Amino acid sequence: MSTEFPSTTEIADDVQRALKAIGVDTEAIAGDVEVRTPITGGVIFSVRTQTADDLDAAVAAAAEAFTVWREVPAPVRGQLIKRWGELLTEHKADLGTLVSAEVGKITSEALGEVQEMIDICDLAVGQSRQLFGKTISSERPGHRLAESWHPLGVVGVISAFNFPVAVYSWNTALALIAGDTVVWKPAEPTPLCSLATDALLARAATDVGAPAGLHHVVLGGREIGQRLVEDTRVALVSATGSVRMGREIAPLIAGRFGRALLELGGNNAAIVAPSADLDLALRGIVFAAAGTAGQRCTTLRRLIVHRSIVDQLVPRIVDAYGTLSIGSPTTDGTLVGPLINEASFNAQQAALAAAVEQGGTVLCGGDRVLADEHPNAYYVQPAVVSMPAQSEIVQAETFAPILYVLTYDTLDEAIALNNGVPQGLSSAIFTTNQIEAERFTSASGSDCGIVNVNIGTSGAEIGGAFGGEKATGGGRESGADSWKAYMRQATNTINYSGQLPLAQGVEFI
After folding, report:
1. In this structure, is residue 2 part of a structural domain?
2. Does residue 504 form part of some domain?
3. What tens digit of pLDDT does each residue of 449-492 get?
4. What local confidence, expressed as pLDDT, does residue 389 receive?
5. Is 147 a residue of the active site?
6. Of 143, 219, 334, 337, which is most buried by a Cβ count within 10 Å?
7. Which of 102, 109, 116, 263 does the annotation list as catalytic?
8. How many structural domains does the chain have?
9. Are residue 287 and residue 222 in the same domain, yes or no?
10. What is the 3-state secondary structure (H, E, C) of 33-56?
11. Quick one: pLDDT at residue 390?
12. Are residues 258 and 276 both part of a single domain?
């Protein structure tokens, strides 16, 4: 247990320094809505939130700027993202300070999140010269078919607290090189990260002479998010959050024929086969399950272990959990920081109680710690719970560090357990058997959007598309062909024959 803690005043001072270094006018953003740090539970700042009228004005400005930005050549648009990446690199530590202060991530994870932003800028700059379309063979003589891609419009981004800046950058870097403009409604607990990120993008736009109005951040609650979702001027809504949120907003977007890119819940599993390298598996499991205090969408929540090795592996996991340093994320050596708030702690406790009622056995963890020293902060011991295969609580995602252990006898059974939940984000198998690895990654294997071999469920790289299936929403962000989500496709037929033959042999006089 880590007992070295900064005071709330010290955290607030660090936040002020970081904001000023980035270029945020702290007086201009000050208001009466308190910002609390999960590290101590204390107030570190107060911000001004926006109204519905402010959101309307932001969307209107973004729609107007789109008419100019879409005409700028894509490689020139890429220069804005290149400059943004340079500023993010320059202020990596400052932005990392804000992420730790508002989310409670340990320093290495906070810096890693900012590095994701830098990485997506690198990818997007290259992509700005590769918005490829295809040339298609025509069945008609003297004709050419071509696929072309065009800017889509205003993109609304709704982000979650657990990755307060990275996910926004995934969307924004690609949207801006695609020729779109962006309106961002960030999570309520993380306004300072959002304002700082927006300030750096504004500096980049000024430095390269980009048009005004390309990007906007609007702070507010549920009503602001709903208004953004319902606005017909917003061509695409990219929303990250819970399955419940997705069920609420998806019909609203579909009802106005808008586009949705949804990144919702994850109830991720890892299979450990008899042939697995248990040392490797142990490291991958513990980070994926306990990292970020279980508050990643890709957190490992279900461990499916072959019955023949469960007694070898699970005690080692329990022992490893006993060595995890829990405490202030800003203290060197801390591995597990706080939960975001009391509601998250209550959800964890309710899930553990339900697990026991449904036949589970808590093998370790689950208790609140450091409560006497920090009564307004919520630090918990990551929990490991042995569960029967069929239990209701295992079907649900609890955004806290709980790892349910299940057993299996055959690979078919393990795959069925992996797939047997509503969510479909990330999955993994630990095995040195190539047949098992190939089977798990095949069409009849994992039904998730991310399917890993000999690595945990978390830690995705920018180059690969990120997202999941089923109740996870089906969206894809970041690498691969994700840029296409931010553009509209057109098929062009060019007739240079001087004649007018019709397709499919149709004759019309």
Report:
1. no
2. no
3. 999 999 999 988 999 999 999 999 999 999 889 999 999 999 99
4. 79
5. no
6. 337
7. 263
8. 2
9. no
10. EEEECCCCCCEEEEECCCCHHHHH
11. 79
12. no
Q: Which of 369, 361, 373, 372 is nearest to 339 (CA)?
A: 369
Q: Which two tokens stand for residue 214?
A: 């390309």
The partner residues of 498 in beta bridges, in order of sequence, read none
Ramachandran region, residue 162 (left: φ > 0; alpha: ψ -120 to 50; beta: rest): alpha
- With residues binned 3-state (H G I as helix, E B as strand, rest as coil), the percentages for the chain, rounded to 5, are 40, 20, 35
pLDDT digits (tens, 9 = 90+) for 218-268: 999 999 999 999 999 999 999 999 999 999 999 999 999 999 999 999 999
Which pTM was predicted? 0.96
Statement to judge: residues 252 and 303 lie in one domain: no
Is the separation of the CB atoms in 153 and 235 below 8 Å? Answer: yes
- Percent of the chain, pLDDT > 70? 99
Return the half-sphere exposure (C-beta side, CA atoms, 13 A cut-off) of residue 482. Answer: 27
For residue 205, the model assigns a pLDDT of: 98
Antiparallel, parallel or unpaired: β 215-217 and 181-185: parallel
> What residue type is assigned to position 208 of the chain?
V
272-309: per-residue pLDDT in tens? 999 999 999 999 999 999 999 999 999 999 999 999 99
Domain ranges, residue 217: 8-264
Which of 264, 283, 304 corresponds to the end of one domain?
264
pLDDT at 509: 67
State whether 226 and 360 are in the same domain.
no
Q: What is the CATH number of the domain that holds 25?
A: 3.40.605.10
The candidate with the shortest Cα–Cα distance to 219, out of 28, 51, 38, is 51
CA dist., res. 370 & res. 364, Å (int): 17
Same domain, 247 and 288: no
Residues 279 and 244 reside in one and the same domain: no
Residue 43 CA to residue 380 CA, distance in Å, equals: 21
pLDDT for position 507: 86
